[in-house]
Specification:
Elements (H helix, E strand, L loop, with lengths): L1 H18 L3 E3 L5 E3 L5 E5 L6 H5 L6 E2 L5 E5 L4 E10 L5 E7 L6 E6 L2 E7 L14 E6 L4 E9 L4 E4 L1 E5 H36 L2 H21 L1 H5 L3 H9 L1 H19 L6 H21 L9 H21 L3 H24 L12 H92 L3 H26 L5 E2 L1 H15 L3 E8 L3 E2 H22 L4 E11 L2 E8 L6 H4 L3 H13 L3 E5 L5 E7 L3
Parallel strand pairs: 1-6, 15-17
Antiparallel strand pairs: 2-13, 3-4, 3-6, 5-12, 6-11, 7-10, 7-13, 8-9, 8-11, 14-16, 17-18, 18-20, 19-20
Helix pairs in contact: 3-4, 3-11, 4-7, 4-11, 7-8, 7-9, 8-9, 9-10, 10-11, 11-12, 12-13, 12-14, 13-14, 14-16
Length: about 625
């Protein structure tokens, strides 16, 4: 037993010596991959100190991979042991880069020094301006040192890659790397602003969801690649956001799901839309549940991936249904699923895509964003096309409706014209019958007057005769003319005065100055007024049998003015103020025409009546 134990100890020591062969470094090689030359130990207790780890030398395992992925590993620490030897005769200062910015804690120990240098997501130094955690390693000429590096990750996948750089080459690489990341975030910002303006102009919520998706991707990727950690967020905010990492990861996925639902109009596929709505509710409840228990963390990626796969299936189904927008979405989904697939392979340590294409994920994200932006632009084009088609249809309908209305208007107009013609004929017939009836009454009055020898009664009957005749002449004019709204005042007044000139033996001249027409009702009142005034003038104004009567009618703005005057002897207003004729004139002028009346009998008789056309 003693000899067997001794052989085992010797074998372990020899194995350790083989595994612990130092990495020989010089100034000619700019970059060394350390992990293929290192040994790995898993501390599942997470309690071991450097001294305790050094007693586990026989349990360190040789590693040959350039990148190690342990997945989500909050329950163990990973120790990496490696030895460096300076082959030169000069002091060398190298940069050790831990090529993963989101590992929670990283500690670097020298074999003979129990104190460590700390880095990682929770220990970002205020002066650090590099994306990844770095440590400075100094080696004297021909010096050999063994280092122990401990890494742990609480909330994200534990991925390890160690690069040993010449300082100048490292900072050249760092500047180039940060510039490429800046271009990536600049491109994403431009796309976000562009689509935000489109949302404001179109009010289409699809653009808003897409802007939220881009912002979510930028926040997630800014933390994932470390750019936000060193330039934007302080240590306190980093710790807070890391605690909300499920929501940071889920936010762009949910925004993308809402964008897909709105953009593809999933409501036209009721079953798929209902399943998606239920899934989003369950997904949200699951995320809140992860804040209170760690047991659900291993299932988080399953939820994320399943939602993405379901959205891909929805896009595929919509494409099969000839949904034009689905082709763009499908292409974008293929791009982003490829990116997530390779991210998963890298985090699991199966295949490191970054070794072959450094910015593969960024290129996929930008390409996917461009595809979706093109899809949104195509949506505008399609909506514009639909709008043009709708406008053409509307114009065609309007044209048809206009033609229908024109035909209907023509038909109605024709019917109205027929009705109007019938009405005019009826009115003319009515005026003709009224005129005939009045002429019959006038004839009866004339016959009656001829049979009476009493001059007073004859005078009374003559007055009645003249008054009826005044209205009869008006109906006669209405029967003859085309319109019944207005009466030619000159024709009407002339027709009235012919009766006086023909029936009187006196040499009295009647002069007209008529400058306007009259409405029917106003013409009738004016005719009666003229009849009374001229009758009185013929009776009383010219005892010698000769004289002149002037009749003037004009319009001043909105007021009519009727003037009747003669060059006769006048009259005494006090004696005849109560005569029936004068009372009738005043009644017609003041109450029927609602005008003003002035009488001057100093030199002949001058009567002036003014009334408004609106009365």
């Amino acid at each position: 037993m003693g000899m067997l134990s001794m052989k085992i100890v010797i074998l372990v020591i020899l194995s350790s010596l083989v595994f612990a062969s130092p990495i020989r470094i010089n100034t000619e090689v700019p970059l060394y991959d350390l992990l293929p030359h290192a040994e790995i130990y898993i501390d599942k207790t997470q309690l071991l100190t450097l001294k305790e780890v050094q007693t586990k030398e026989g349990e360190f395992l040789k590693n040959e991979k350039k990148l190690l992925g342990f997945g989500y590993a909050p329950n163990f620490d990973v120790w990496v042991k490696f030895t460096l030897k300076n082959e030169t005769d000069k002091t060398m200062v190298k940069i050790l880069e831990y090529d993963n910015t989101i590992t929670s804690e990283i500690e670097l120990f020298e074999e003979s020094n129990l104190t460590s240098s700390k880095e990682g997501l929770y220990y970002i130094s205020s002066g650090r301006k590099t994306i990844n955690p770095i440590f400075k390693i100094s080696l004297a000429p021909q010096e050999s040192k063994t280092y122990y590096l401990k890494a742990r990750s609480y909330v994200t996948a534990l991925i390890m890659k160690l690069n040993l750089w010449e300082r100048e080459h490292f900072y050249e690489k760092e500047i180039s790397h940060q510039l490429c990341l800046a271009l990536f975030f600049g491109a994403m910002s431009i796309l976000a602003i562009y689509n935000l303006f489109l949302f404001f102009f179109t009010k289409d919520v699809s653009y808003l969801y897409y802007v939220l998706y881009i912002v979510g991707v930028m926040v997630h990727h800014g933390i994932y690649v470390g750019l936000a950690n060193i330039y934007i967020l302080n240590q306190e905010w980093i710790v807070r956001l890391i605690g909300l990492s499920p929501f940071i990861v889920a936010f762009p996925i949910v925004a993308l799901a809402l964008f897909s639902r709105s953009f593809l109009r999933i409501q036209q596929y009721p079953l798929l839309g209902k399943i998606l709505n239920i899934y989003l509710i369950v997904f949200t409840l699951f995320l809140f549940a992860t804040l209170f228990t760690n047991t659900l963390h291993p299932y988080r990626n399953i939820f994320f991936i399943s939602l993405l796969v379901y959205l891909f299936i929805v896009a595929l189904y919509a494409a099969v249904k000839k949904n034009r927008q689905a082709y763009f979405i499908l292409f974008g989904w293929v791009t982003i699923l490829i990116a997530f697939f390779f991210m998963y392979l890298s985090s699991a340590g199966i295949f490191n895509i970054y070794e072959h294409m450094r910015y593969f994920i960024e290129l996929c994200i930008v390409l996917e964003a461009l595809i979706f932006s093109i899809a949104l632009a195509d949506r505008i084009k399609q909506l514009q096309k639909d709008k043009e088609i709708a406008n053409e249809t509307l114009m065609h309908q309007q044209k048809n409706e206009q033609q229908r209305l024109e035909l209907k208007v023509k038909e109605k107009t024709k019917n109205l014209n027929v009705a109007l013609e019938e009405k005019e004929l009826l009115l003319k017939e009515l005026n003709h019958r009224v005129k005939n009836n009045m002429q019959m009454i006038v004839s009866l009055v004339r016959l009656q007057k001829d049979e009476i020898s009493d001059e007073t009664l004859q005078d009374i009957l003559q007055t009645v005769h003249n008054r009826i005749n005044a209205m009869s002449h008006l109906h006669e004019l209405l029967y003859k003319q085309e319109t019944i709204l207005h009466v030619n005042a000159y024709d009407y007044f002339s027709l009235l005065m012919e009766e006086f000139e023909d029936s009187s033996e006196k040499d009295i001249a009647i002069h007209f100055d008529i400058k306007t027409d009259l409405k029917i009702d106003q013409a009738m009142y004016c005719g009666l007024i003229l009849n009374e005034l001229v009758t009185n003038a013929f009776k009383y104004a010219f005892p010698n049998g000769t004289g002149n009567i002037h009749i003037l009618l004009d319009k001043m703005g909105t007021h009519y003015r009727l003037r009747v005057y003669d060059d006769g002897v006048g009259y005494n207003e006090e004696k005849i103020s109560n005569s029936l004729g004068l009372v009738l004139v005043k009644t017609l002028a003041l109450q029927q025409l609602r005008g003003e009346m002035r009488i001057d009998s100093t030199q002949g008789v001058r009567v002036e009546i003014i009334w408004s056309e609106h009365d």
